[in-house]
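Hi everyone,

Forwarding the result from last night's run.
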Amino acid sequence: MGAKFLKKGDPQPPPVEAGKLRLYSMLYCPYAQRARLVLAAKGVPFEMVDINLKNKPEWYSKVHPETKVPALEMGSGEVVVESLDISDYLDRKFPEPPLWSADQDKNLHHKQLLETVGKAFPLYRKFFRAITSQELDEAVSSIAAVIQPLENELSKTGSKFFGGARPGMLDYMIWPWAERIEGLRTMHPDVKLPLQDFPRLLAWGAAMKQDPAVKASLMSGEAHASFIKKIVDGSLDYDKL
């Protein structure tokens, strides 16, 4: 990808100009991608600074006390951290197009779905670290059980997206992991996935890939698989990404 990942010893970027936004990110991080998706959906220009998460710059703790990504810094000096908080902040600050619904009951339901599906995220790690066929099958079954409510929701509403006719906040918040499924499939092409059980989600995924905001950050399954393999075998070198 040719990204420059700032590391220990690299100087801190100059202060953010008034009225501007800077996103501290990491190109392959699904949580940082959430923020990038929302910024793209809103059409908001921003500066992106990629952080080397294995060898973080000394000054980054002043931006984010836990030195995680993402972090959104404004020209006012204000910093918002955590992907969901950043996404909510951007939806309030840049209301068009709205990503949360005007229907608060629907929003509450989508937040509950997001919390439920959040249990699948750690299972991705189990999947790409699995070695035996039994471990892979167990990981697949666990992920399928957790994402079943998403399939049920699309079946119930009959909508193309969780947001309705166009993607909403729930769509963008879960997309990074849907995208990384392609990487897992690339790593384990022989693993049997229960795709027949998720026709609505498959159609949703195909539709999401046509969304301009998704296209702006979309990476191939091969790219994700390569990154994951380097994490697993300990060969990850940010200078060569």
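The two ends are 6 Å apart (CA to CA).

Cheers,
N.
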